[in-house]
Specification:
alpha/beta, 13 helices, 4 domains, 6-stranded mixed beta sheet
């Protein structure tokens, strides 16, 4: 983006010069007419100067380096942006002189506040650093720099952009939830499913299903058959924890639900369970659904944690309630196809329609199913629908509890664990 306009002094010279030139023509005075041309010519000279020495154009254009630490950053956690503007030669340094710089940032990164930067100037270099206060999950643009400059006569002012913007990834705000031993898994199940013990069924193979760990693919047999097959033994590691998410329409409810679901997923991941995230509508280019992602495993260090958080960044509700319900039902169907053995299912849902309740209910037959149902604070039809959902899931064998959006996540989690006792 580049723009140029006269300053108040420039407008005055243009107006005054035009009046003198017109008066000189009317009076037949060549000297007055010539004098009137001085102002417009000065403005023209200033315009040519700022074009020739535009900091964003030509072989001597300034270079911009931008970085954010940390990136990704969690919502409501601090981050710092560093911007460096460099001139490569003498001409570039002259363009850098007297340059006014301003940074552009999405309001989700600044909290709606004006960015105040610490500026350091040296020969051929300007360095800026400023704090970011991300308030909402997502991928938000930072930059480019806005450069303003006035010609030496003070008659023309330009506004241009420097450098390219960068995307700052903001993870959902999460809390560390405890996963007590045996809280979600009964003692017999922990013996059978939690231990990493060999099995005589390791040689049994079955077709690959969405969500299967690629490390269990039997590559030799897959090459021979012409299709992916995996070892069917499910006792070689802890069972999968599937996080099922149904998002509301309001922004605060969306962020609370994503934070709770992601926190539960991280707790399961920290307990050694592979985690699968299902449900929700992604806004990422390409339009892939979150359910198409495979399992997340801890791997080395914090890799698994970062992978799960990154998958939660783009989650949004579908455009309409009907599409939202269809996404949930599709996620449940995908979960049903991928289930092998008694998986853990941790759901965060709202008041469900009859179709939604009918889709979720059978999961309790083959899984250890836990659900947090969002309950509106005010009495009314929405509250009654949430109570109906709680009762229906409880009758189907789910462990369920209600929670108001915005409630402390630790309290909600503790209440959910109580339902397993």
């Amino acid at each position: 983006m580049w723009s140029m306009r006269p300053t108040p002094r420039g407008w005055g010279l243009l107006a005054g010069g035009s009046v003198l030139a017109l008066a000189g023509g009317l009076w037949g005075s060549i000297d007055i007419a010539r004098l009137g041309l001085v102002g417009p010519l000065l403005v023209l000279a200033g315009a040519l100067w700022v074009v020739l020495f535009d900091p964003a154009r030509g072989r001597h254009a300034l270079r911009v380096h931008r970085s954010v630490q940390p990136n990704p950053v969690s919502a409501h956690s601090p981050a710092t942006a560093h911007v460096e503007v460099l001139a490569g030669d003498t001409s570039g340094r002259s363009r850098l002189a007297d340059l006014e710089l301003g940074e552009q940032a999405a309001s989700q990164l600044s909290g709606g506040l004006t960015l105040r930067a610490r500026v350091e100037r040296s020969a051929g270099r300007i360095a800026l650093s400023y704090a970011l206060a991300p308030v909402r999950r997502g991928r938000w643009p930072l930059g480019p720099l806005v450069a303003r400059r006035t010609d030496p006569f003070g008659v023309v002012r330009t506004r241009s952009t420097l450098g390219e913007p960068v995307d700052v990834t903001v993870w959902p705000a999460v809390v560390d939830l405890d996963l007590p031993s045996g809280a979600l898994v009964g003692e017999p199940d922990r013996v059978a499913l939690g231990a990493r013990s060999p099995s005589p069924d390791d040689a049994a193979l079955r077709g690959y299903r969405v969500g299967d760990d690629l490390r269990r693919v039997h590559w030799v047999s897959s090459a021979r058959r012409g299709e992916l097959v995996v070892r069917s033994d499910e006792r070689a590691g802890r069972r999968t924890a599937s996080i099922l998410l149904d998002l509301p329409r309001d922004r605060s409810g969306i962020e609370w639900s994503v934070s709770l679901a992601t926190s539960m997923g991280l707790a399961a991941l920290g307990g050694g369970h592979p985690v699968r995230l299902l449900g929700g509508h992604t806004t990422r280019p390409g339009g892939e659904t979150v359910g198409t992602h495979g399992q997340v495993r801890e791997g080395g260090g914090s890799r698994g944690r970062a992978e799960l958080l990154d998958r939660a960044v783009d989650l949004e509700p579908a455009p309409t309630d009907a599409e939202n319900e269809a996404v949930l039902v599709a996620a449940v169907a995908e979960l049903g196809l991928a289930v092998t053995g008694r998986e853990l299912v941790l759901a965060v849902v709202g008041a469900l329609s009859a179709r939604g309740r009918a889709a979720l209910a059978p999961l309790a037959d083959g899984c250890d199913a836990f659900a947090v149902v969002r309950v509106p604070p005010a009495l009314g039809a929405a509250r009654r629908d949430a109570d109906v959902t709680l009762a229906a899931l409880r009758r189907a064998g789910w462990h369920v509890c209600g929670a108001e959006p915005g409630e402390d996540l630790h309290q909600t989690w503790a209440r959910l664990l109580e339902t397993a006792r």
